[in-house]
Amino acid sequence: MTSLLTSPWIVGFTISVLLGALIVPGIKALLGLGVPLPTKEQIGKGIPGWITGMVERFFFMIVVADSQTGLGDASVAMMVWLTLKLGANWGRQDMTFMSDDDTRRKFVNGGFVALLSGLVSMLFAIAGGFAVRCGVRLCFP
After folding, report:
1. How confident is the model at residue 141 (pLDDT cuts 50, 70, 90)?
2. Residue 73 falls within a domain, yes or no?
3. Over the stretch 50-65, which tens digit does the pLDDT of each residue have?
4. Is residue 140 in a domain?
5. Residue 17 falls inside a structural domain
6. Minimal CA–CA distance to 113: which of 21, 10, 27, 5?
7. For residues 104 and 79, is the Cβ–Cβ distance under 8 A?
8. 49-66 and 20-31 helices cross at what angle (nearest 10)?
9. What span, in angstroms and rounded, lies between the C-alpha atoms of 138 and 7?
10. d(C-alpha 16, C-alpha 131), whole Å
11. Domain total of the chain
12. Which residue range(s) make up the domain with 82?
């Protein structure tokens, strides 16, 4: 019988949610280096990205861990989610203030950085799901 600390689910959670929460923002910042991005005032209010990221990584870790057909179905679900998420944000912006090309370019750059960081986030969900599925455990004496 395994204890909670040595459970593959704890390892999967740690990889997908906690490690992803530490690394994905750094990668997103690296992707945005030298690229003009929209300011927080231009983006507006909404659900913070770190909350969305943690929930989606946790959900898709479970999907990958429980998938009976390999990664195929889970990866399709991930791509559909990224499409819906980015599509909803793409059409949500009030385009009337984008009178100049520079502002439009910032939003296009921001969308591309969001897509790439979403893909990196999904990789952490996949790694966590595989840890659960393959039975990777923490070893405590």
Report:
1. very low
2. yes
3. 888 899 999 999 999 8
4. no
5. yes
6. 27
7. no
8. 120
9. 7
10. 9
11. 1
12. 4-134
